[in-house]
User: Fold this.
Amino acid sequence: MASKLHILISGAGIAGLMTGALLEKAGISYEIFEKAKEVRPLGSTMTLSNLSVVIFKQLGLYQGLLAISKPNRGIHLKKQSMNPIGSFLGPGVDPEERYGDHTVVVARPDVVQLLMTSVPARRIHYNKRILSTSQDEDKVVINCADNTSYEGSILIGADGAYSSVRQNMYKDLEKVGKLPKEDAKPLGYDFDCVVGVSTPMDDEKYPVFKDQFCDFEIVLGTNVPYTWWSMPLSDNRMGWMVTQDFRHEVTGEERNFRFSEWGPDAALEMCNKVKDLPSPYGGVIGDIFDQTPKERISKVMLEDKYFSTWYHGRTVLLGDVPQKMLPFGGQGANMAILGAVQLVNLLFDIYANTQEEITEVFQRYFAARSGPGKAAVSASNSTGYLMHKKGMLADFLRYAFFHWVPSWVMRMAADKYNAHQLQISFLPYAEQRGTFRGKLNPLSRRMVPGSTIPKAL
Assistant:
């Protein structure tokens, strides 16, 4: 058994790259394995809360994040006629004044590129599709489609909703009768979604780009089964998304059949279906599609499911892998980032590279992050209902949310979210700038003043 940790990370998305950036700072050996031949600039936008922004500060990436993002002010939901349904502008206080930072909106490809500046290129192996895994008391091994194998102390599955690492781990648990029935159920998907980020657009034609804030403009189709989203980004680019809810339209088998209908051609086919829908900025949404390079338009499947099994042996799951949520609540990236911080904080403090120690780390990681993860999955599902469901009940619930929920209730929810402020325990803590001071996690035992404990394994 090796005395030093060597971490294998499956997936070079937000969760995998953030974990790599943290391990790099921690001085813990690691490698990232990405099944694609290169990191592709796909996806639309993401929101990073003030809790995630603090992590970028600690990593020395704060100015880079500010340069590629806009602070978020709120959302505006409209009917297809462009008559307003309602607006949500936050908890009724200045978020920077109360919590220290705004929630920011940023293009997903930009975040990926920013994180890659903190992960040396030699750490990432491309075209490595993991077929199988094996583990014992001393090590974990991954076997890739190109007939290569790699050995490590710990395997972190950060490879997305249809994770190969999770599938292999669950097969092992199922063989010994330890996999819960709910976790064994396959993931069917609930929404068709096509996304993209435009090239820079004319701010005279689209004066919304002159606003320092990013407001989400969401249009709920009246006589079409679509909801479409527009998010003005930095550099006069528009992030956009069109979604179609299939949850009550087709059977699970039909949904899974549609799973195979994706790729560049399917994305463009869906764009052609919706291109003449009205844009909240005037004209039609096809005008924005025309400003988006075709190779950067992608069709994705959206689903949500909370898994109750996050680890087994020397394998642990992170990000979307154990807690797949719909993007409508804006929490997917935040859960991935904060989960990575929690896990690496614990790994930095581990006493020894033994199965017993690793199991304790995984147990503490699960105890800390499973509750917020489960809540985020539920919240994203509820938001998806509000933004898609049609009918009198849905109309009533939307009206109640936008017009009857008082600001003090929203503020209480925001305070609860900020009650615990997780930071990287082995780096200098960022200053708590807001008037609301959440409870900080303690410094690493290896970093407390006067500590004579050697640095991480």
User: Anything to note?
Assistant: The longest helix spans residues 355-388. The radius of gyration is 22 Å. DSSP finds 14 helices and 22 strands in the chain. The first strand starts at residue 6 and ends at 10.
